[in-house]
Amino acid sequence: MSIAQRAGTLPVEQAHAIRVHNIAKSFGSSAVLRGLSIDFVDNAITTVLGPSGTGKSVLLKHLVGLEAPDQGEIVVFGKDIWKISEEERYALRKRFGVLFQDGALFGSLNIFDNVAFPLRKHTDLAESEIGDLVMTRLREVGLEHSAAKLPNEISGGMRKRAGFARALVLNPDIVLFDEPDSGLDPVRTSLLNDLIKEMHTEHGGTYLLVTHNIPTARRLSDYVGLLWNGALVHYGPTDEAFDSDDGFVRQFLTGDSVGPLGMD
Ligand SMILES: Nc1ncnc2c1ncn2[C@@H]1O[C@H](COP(=O)(O)OP(=O)(O)OP(=O)(O)O)[C@@H](O)[C@H]1O
């Protein structure tokens, strides 16, 4: 069976807030996504894994409409995001929360104002209501005493938690995490994972993660998708992925140097 054939879709009874159908994307002469299809399961945590440079971050950018595919469809809540107006796309984007690698905080704004930013930009809530919402989120991520600090006055782990609080502040239906654990030590990675899991249990939503951290994927995810050369080579429940006897899946998840995956 070819790699493309092995990449399955999940049982159709699952709902899908995001469906990606046969997307391709090249930058210049370099083909990054090559006919990628994946339907993400609603209200689940799905991790997308794959070798470096295989297109994971490019996929996330497509989901939120920051990149347009050369071909194929990205359907969010039933709408093909490139067949709707700019206003509709903007409205859909507000249903996403995004946590980038470094938290992507504004360096000149304190933590409170960073978390308040989406509320001030996208809602007409009064400052008192904004204050309540921001402090609730900061308490949830354990940063209520750091509200007045600037991003460079707190640790990397705290910045990620602040970025997470900001990603959640508009109650998004979908949250995208691009390597949330990069640069964190193992204990802080575990603490952040626990926090992500707790917040998912508490608030629900469709969480999509990209990470290189296999223990993170195992601990957090309900589903795992494995990307290679711009296409999906495995997709299914996390336990199934970790029990897989497929050579590529096994090699990737165990980090074995022997197997179909080489340096190129
Ligand atoms: N805007 C862009 N212009 C040109 N090339 C790009 C652009 N964005 C991404 N690429 C290229 O696309 C390829 C895939 O990048 P991407 O960041 O998605 O990989 P990744 O799987 O997330 O890798 P990593 O795990 O190392 O972060 C890389 O070769 C990258 O250089």
From TrEMBL:
Question: What InterPro entries does UniProt report for this protein, alphabetically?
Answer: AAA+_ATPase, ABC_transporter-like_ATP-bd, ABC_transporter-like_CS, P-loop_NTPase
Asked whether the UniProt record includes Nucleotide-binding among its keywords, one would answer yes
Q: Which GO terms describe its molecular function?
A: ATP binding
Q: Which Gene3D superfamilies match?
A: P-loop containing nucleotide triphosphate hydrolases
Q: What is the lineage of its organism?
A: Bacteria, Bacillati, Actinomycetota, Actinomycetes, Pseudonocardiales
Q: Does the keyword Chloroplast apply?
A: no
Domain ABC transporter: residue ranges: 18-254
**Would you tell me the protein name for this molecule?**
ABC transporter ATP-binding protein
The record's listing under SMART domains reads:
AAA (SM00382)
Organism of this sequence: Haloechinothrix salitolerans
